[in-house]
């Protein structure tokens, strides 16, 4: 990227300074033998390619200095194509070299006898002088290369900073704006020229950093309002320190909505769609169809189903299929947050709403989910007081923030979920009937795993792959016996429980196949669980015998001589015990 033509002005000045001192004309050519500077008759020939000047060519190629003091008997001149017409009486030329690369040639040319005499009489001095001039030019080239590299770095940084999806600005120690990216101006609706303006005046919410307390004050929440435009988020300040001296700060800003969007993007269930929810049983397929229809509507959806059946997964898929998918999906677990905090979590509050309220107020989940979807999980656990507030939001589509003077319009799609029987709760008076009907516009009932046993093999396959990858194991499948056990088991914890068992199995497996020995006993002794649960049912003697055998196996499962102890407890021989295990198809370790 270096060429003499980029510093043409500088080298022309050098050429003219030489003529002024020596009275001999100067010409400078680049590595292409194109004249880039010249004096006397060469002034008009700048830009032309020199031809036949073989001394310059030789000087350039061989990186040597050349003096011709008598062209009539000089070998180079004799070979030169221009030898008949040459008007030169003498010449001195020197290569311009920087870091081993030749960038051109500088030469002194005598067009009169007198000038030639000066050259002849001062050969060494002139050669030395010309060498110094060539060095001067090569230093200019180095500076030009540095300036180019710096400009390139600057351009790269500018492109990088503008490509970041975050507003960024740098300021000097007094707060005067130095550099910023496009997003910074866009996010704060700022006018065109903000260079040199003071950030503490422009964005009053920014606190001037104090050096003593800098670490503690690095991050703050902010609330920015300008002509009806409002923005809330977090900003971080970082120091710019050069050679131990504070030179300024870089401030970045995260809009609360952006933060949620980004969270959603990295969350594993972000991209879940109905097609990639595992399961092909007829029951789950018809639920998927209902969910697809629900995704095209804006009405409230109520998803019911036992714990771990995939209610949140379906809620996300509905959101992702809807035309709100580019906007936030905000999940709130109503049971996990104490009632007194849930209100501010959902609806937010204004600054100064109550003692202890945060400066700048707090954004509620409903505001964050604006234009998107809010997922109210475990809605059955919401207090009656909050149920009333939620009902108002649903009816009026307006939000009344704690401490706010007026209501705010919100556009949020609600998907609620519960594993409780809301109808029963309505009858008992613990859930508002009006809210129940408002929520239950599109009901979706998720089957438990017992009702979709056909899906178990696919789910197991999917989970084995997932955990093998995560845990860096090479487990590829399960033993047929394990699958039989799993198909028999009742799965009270549904898919989440299946996930736990597979994760444990993949962890514990030594080989490629998950075998019975890494499967928890509760799965193997299905009947025992039933015996303990259904003790009021009348059973056949065979059923009773089988149950007692399982009970005994369970009791002595951790003993070394378990079969012997079981047989003894049941009052039968070991051989009879084995026969009965075979008969009742009881799997035991
Ligand atoms: N069809 C499926 N394929 C694969 N994984 C699934 C499927 N359904 C659910 N899961 C996984 O099972 C776990 C439980 O699902 P999810 O949290 O959606 O259930 P839930 O009904 O909302 O549970 P809870 O009522 O306890 O909140 C999650 O890790 C989810 O990714």
UniProtKB/TrEMBL annotation:
In terms of InterPro entries, this protein maps to: AAA+_ATPase (IPR003593), AAA_lid_NorR (IPR058031), GAF-like_dom_sf (IPR029016), Homeodomain-like_sf (IPR009057), HTH_Fis (IPR002197), P-loop_NTPase (IPR027417), Sigma_54_int (IPR002078), Sigma_54_int_dom_ATP-bd_1 (IPR025662)
Ranges for the Sigma-54 factor interaction domain?
277-507
Task: Please indicate if the UniProt record lists Transcription as a keyword.
Answer: yes
Q: Which domain of life is it from?
A: Bacteria
Q: Which GO terms describe its molecular function?
A: ATP binding; sequence-specific DNA binding
Alphabetized, the UniProt keywords read: ATP-binding, DNA-binding, Nucleotide-binding, Transcription, Transcription regulation
Q: What is this protein called?
A: Transcriptional regulatory protein ZraR
Q: Which organism is it from?
A: Romboutsia hominis
> What GO biological process terms does the UniProt entry carry, in alphabetical order?
regulation of DNA-templated transcription
PANTHER family on file:
C4-DICARBOXYLATE TRANSPORT TRANSCRIPTIONAL REGULATORY PROTEIN DCTD, TRANSCRIPTIONAL REGULATORY PROTEIN
């Amino acid at each position: 990227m270096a060429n003499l033509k980029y510093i043409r002005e500088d080298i022309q000045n050098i050429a003219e300074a030489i003529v002024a001192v020596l009275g001999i004309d100067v010409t400078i050519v680049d590595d292409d033998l194109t004249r880039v500077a010249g004096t006397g008759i060469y002034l008009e020939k700048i830009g032309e390619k020199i031809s036949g000047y073989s001394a310059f060519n030789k000087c350039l190629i061989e990186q040597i200095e050349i003096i011709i003091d008598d062209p009539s008997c000089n070998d180079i001149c004799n070979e030169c194509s221009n030898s008949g017409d040459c008007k030169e009486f003498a010449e001195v030329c020197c290569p311009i070299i920087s870091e081993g690369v030749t960038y051109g040639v500088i030469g002194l040319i005598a067009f009169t006898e007198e000038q030639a005499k000066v050259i002849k009489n001062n050969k060494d001095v002139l050669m030395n002088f010309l060498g110094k001039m060539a060095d001067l030019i090569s230093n200019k080239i180095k500076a030009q290369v540095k300036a180019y590299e710096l400009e390139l770095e600057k351009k790269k940084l500018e492109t990088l900073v503008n490509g970041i999806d975050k507003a960024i600005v740098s300021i000097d120690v007094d707060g005067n704006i130095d550099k910023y990216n496009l997003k910074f101006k866009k996010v704060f609706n700022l006018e065109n020229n903000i260079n040199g303006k003071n950030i503490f005046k422009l964005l009053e919410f920014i606190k001037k950093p104090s050096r003593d307390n800098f670490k503690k004050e690095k991050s703050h929440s902010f609330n920015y309002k300008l002509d009806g435009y409002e923005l809330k988020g977090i900003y971080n300040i970082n120091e710019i320190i050069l050679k131990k001296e504070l030179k300024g700060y870089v401030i970045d800003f995260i809009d609360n909505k952006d933060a949620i969007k980004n969270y959603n993007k990295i969350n594993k269930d972000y991209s879940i769609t109905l097609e990639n929810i595992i399961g092909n049983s007829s029951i789950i397929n018809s639920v998927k169809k209902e969910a697809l229809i629900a995704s095209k509507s804006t009405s409230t959806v109520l998803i019911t189903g036992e714990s771990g059946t995939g209610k949140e997964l379906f809620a996300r898929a509905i959101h992702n299929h809807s035309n709100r998918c580019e906007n936030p999906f905000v999940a709130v677990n109503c049971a996990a947050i104490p009632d007194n905090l849930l209100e501010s979590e959902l609806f937010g509050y204004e600054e100064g709403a109550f003692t202890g309220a945060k400066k700048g107020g707090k954004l509620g989940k409903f505001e964050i989910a604006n234009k998107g979807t809010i997922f109210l999980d475990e809605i059955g656990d919401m207090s009656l007081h909050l149920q009333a507030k939620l009902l108002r939001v649903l009816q009026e589509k307006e939000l009344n923030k704690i401490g706010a003077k007026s209501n705010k319009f919100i556009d949020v799609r609600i998907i609620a979920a519960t594993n409780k029987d809301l109808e029963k709760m309505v009858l008992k008076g613990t859930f508002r009937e009006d809210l129940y009907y408002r929520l239950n516009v599109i009901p979706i009932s998720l089957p438990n795993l017992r009702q979709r046993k056909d899906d178990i093999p696919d789910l197991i396959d999917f989970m084995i792959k997932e955990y093998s990858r995560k845990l860096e194991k090479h487990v590829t499948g399960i033993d047929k016996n394990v699958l039989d056990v799993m198909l028999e088991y009742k799965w009270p914890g549904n898919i989440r429980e299946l996930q736990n068992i597979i994760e444990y199995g993949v962890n514990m497996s030594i080989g490629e196949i998950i075998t019975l020995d890494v499967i928890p006993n509760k799965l193997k002794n299905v009947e025992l669980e039933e015996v303990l649960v259904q003790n009021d049912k009348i059973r056949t003697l065979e059923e009773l015998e089988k149950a007692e055998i399982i009970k005994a196996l369970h009791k002595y499962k951790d003993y070394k001589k378990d079969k012997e102890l079981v047989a003894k407890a049941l009052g039968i021989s070991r051989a009879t015990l084995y026969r009965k295990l075979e008969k009742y198809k009881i799997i035991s370790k």
